[in-house]
Design brief:
This protein is mainly alpha-helical and 296 residues long. Helix content is 80%, strand content 0%. The radius of gyration is 19 Å and the shape is globular. The protein has one domain: Orthogonal Bundle (Farnesyl Diphosphate Synthase), CATH 1.10.600. Helix 2 runs parallel beside helix 12 and helix 3 packs parallel to helix 6. It is built from twelve helices and no strands.
């Protein structure tokens, strides 16, 4: 079947989940700004700054591509026609090549940042292959890895800028807890197909769907609690109205998902919708972390 360029481009974006890369770029920038205190004190040269944004983007895109490569049979059983390999817009060998090229490019660029940044890029890039191959089938480990990939850009930004502070740590754990909660919810959705195609024994198989939903909701509650702590105790977010508006909106969405997941964990459509809801919530949170740094 002859494929049009527009189809390939759309397939590439779906394969690499480019929208997630934009959020990672945002998170790295926040991490850098937290180190400098505000945008007025920002002190990175253009090449370092641009490279610091490209590295996590390419790593993320590489990870999603290799995940679809290894998940092909599972995605077919789960009828994931939204995946470009299942819909045959992208071939499996193309997905593998895309992943490898993006991984190598990210490592090359990270080498010129600093040693710790390179080590972070290498470790998470290598683990993306291990995760897709086997780790995602190990209870908790797979969920934790994905959440770490969502949270570590905050730390990566601080490492590139040259310092870490307590704000980095608190925001890291907010994203980590929300990320684990989100991944557990998605495991509930896909656990049947994953078990048949991959022999997966993730957390849903270990403790069941109901307890998995309860754990997911508890982790969302932890993330919300930490966001309140930042509002009351840490500059530049202390009693900041911009932070309150955006992170407050995020907390409302996460609270909604946490509460209704307890009674709707058997409804695939509900879990599918919460994926987009939580993605919007995380974007709102990033705006809440970013905007006060512009005006402080």
């Amino acid at each position: 079947m002859k494929r049009k360029f527009s189809q390939l481009a759309k397939g590439f974006i779906k394969l690499t989940r480019a929208e997630h890369s934009l959020m990672l770029v945002f998170a790295v920038l926040i991490g850098e700004l937290l180190s400098f205190g505000s945008i007025k004190n920002f002190n990175l040269d253009a090449i370092t700054f641009i490279s610091s944004l490209i590295v996590p983007s390419f790593l993320s895109m590489s990870a999603f591509a290799i995940n679809d490569y290894f998940d092909y049979e599972s995605d077919k059983l789960n009828k994931r026609i939204d995946r470009p390999l299942v819909s045959k817009i992208i071939r499996k060998d193309e997905a593998l090549m895309i992943s490898i090229v993006l991984f190598v490019l990210s490592l090359y660029l990270s080498f010129f940042l600093n040693q710790i940044a390179f080590e972070i890029a290498f470790i998470f890039g290598a683990f993306s292959f291990l995760y897709s191959f086997k780790l995602k089938d190990v209870a908790v480990v797979g969920n934790l890895y994905v959440a770490l990939c969502m949270a570590v850009p905050i730390i990566f930004g601080g490492v590139v800028a040259g310092s870490l502070n307590q704000e980095h740590i608190f925001i890291f754990f907010i994203i980590l807890f929300a990320g684990i909660a989100r991944e557990i919810a998605q495991s509930i959705r896909d656990y049947k197909g994953d078990a048949i195609a991959r022999g997966s024994k993730n957390i849903v198989h270990l403790i069941g769907k109901r307890k998995s939903a309860m754990l997911s909701s508890f982790l969302y509650a932890l993330a919300i609690s930490l966001s309140f702590a930042i509002f009351f105790f840490f500059e530049p977010y202390k009693l900041n109205i911009t932070y309150a508006i955006f992170v407050g909106a995020c907390d409302i969405l996460l609270f909604y998902v946490a509460i209704f997941s307890l009674s709707n964990y058997n409804k695939v459509d509900f879990i599918r919708k919460t994926r987009n809801t939580t993605l919007i919530a995380m974007l709102l949170a990033l705006l809440g972390f970013f905007l006060p740094l512009l005006f402080s």
